[in-house]
Amino acid sequence: MNLLQEILIVILACFGIALLLGLLSRFANRGRAKIRKERGDSKMNEKIKKNEVETIKALFRLVRKWSFVLFGIALFLIVMSWLLPLLGWEIISTLKKWFWLGFGVSCFGWYLSHALKIITEGERAVILWFKKYLCTYRPGLRIIFYPFMEIRFVDIREIQLDIEPQNIITQDKIVATIDTVLNLRVMTEKDEPIKKGELSPAARFLFAVESPLSLLKKLAVAFIRDSVGALIFDKVIEEQHRINDDATKNLCDAAVAWGIKVTRVKLENIQPPKNLVDA
Fold it and tell me: Which of 1, 213, 231, 233 is 20 to 30 A from residue 130's alpha carbon, by CA?
């Protein structure tokens, strides 16, 4: 078999693999889109930021994709060499060499795409070794020993939590409707130095309690009910700033164990009952 025939076989093999991968990718994308729609995950629809870090991440995704493509092409070629013995032992030997070369390249690319991780500003990466906490990585390019290590990202940027309006009875039996807003973020090494053998704030946020934000909301509601319920309605209006400061301090002290820093608690839109307003 001459060189032209060998090139033709390779082109046909690549075309067949590309067609198969294209069909599989299309079905997979449809499935993912359906799941995202059912979950109502709005974050999936956000535009990818055009910066250097995202470009490197896209490059790693490309490496992972083409590693599977090379593996598929090599597998297809070796299957052809088994199914078409009439090609001769020379071309079969050549195809086997291509197979092992493609297999090696694809394995290396696949492992590299899992081992190299990009940690952006505003994130911390919690590293687990056989599901046990090992350390916390700061932003930058990091290497992990996959699959023995697992990485979990934690967003440390400040966020705002809105608590649903609460109907609270004051000391003078007035039902006030109060909106509350919490500002918080995950603590970093600047807030609390990481001691050897202890969980970092990011790790405590992941593992200390099952749902730290939900629990923090419940604590905020309980504290505000106690504070407002001990005052008459006029005093609630007058001492609103003191209630905010006390709530911030108490919630911050409670949330330290979960790796959370509460930066502000604010009572908003304190409304008396409608009949009191009309009067």
Answer: 213
What are residue 183's DSSP bridge partners?
160, 264
Phi, psi of 146 (to 5 degrees): -70, 140
Type of residue numbered 225: R
The DSSP H or E segment spanning 106 is helix 89-115
Q: Residue 220, exposed/middle/buried by CB under 10 A (0-12, 13-18, 19+)?
A: buried
* In the block, residue with structure tokens 């440390």: 156
Report the alpha-carbon angle 253-259-260, nearest 5. Answer: 60
pLDDT in tens, 236-273: 888 888 989 999 999 999 899 999 999 999 888 888 87
Nearest to 242 by CA among 257, 230, 255: 230
DSSP 216-259: HHHHHHHHHHHHHHTS-HHHHHHTHHHHHHHHHHHHHHHHGGGT
d(CA 98, CA 272): 78
Q: Is a pLDDT exceeding 80 seen at residue 140?
A: yes
3-state helix, strand, coil split of the chain in percent (to 5) is 55, 25, 20
For residues 52 and 118, what is the distance between their CA atoms, to the nearest angstrom?
Answer: 11
Strand (E) positions, the chain?
Answer: 116-119, 123-129, 132-137, 140-143, 149-155, 159-169, 175-186, 260-271
The pair of three-digit structure tokens given for residue 45, joined into one six-digit string:
């629809």
Q: The pTM is what?
A: 0.62
Backbone angles phi, psi at 167, to 5 degrees: -90, 110
Q: What are phi and psi of 214, to 5 degrees?
A: -65, -40
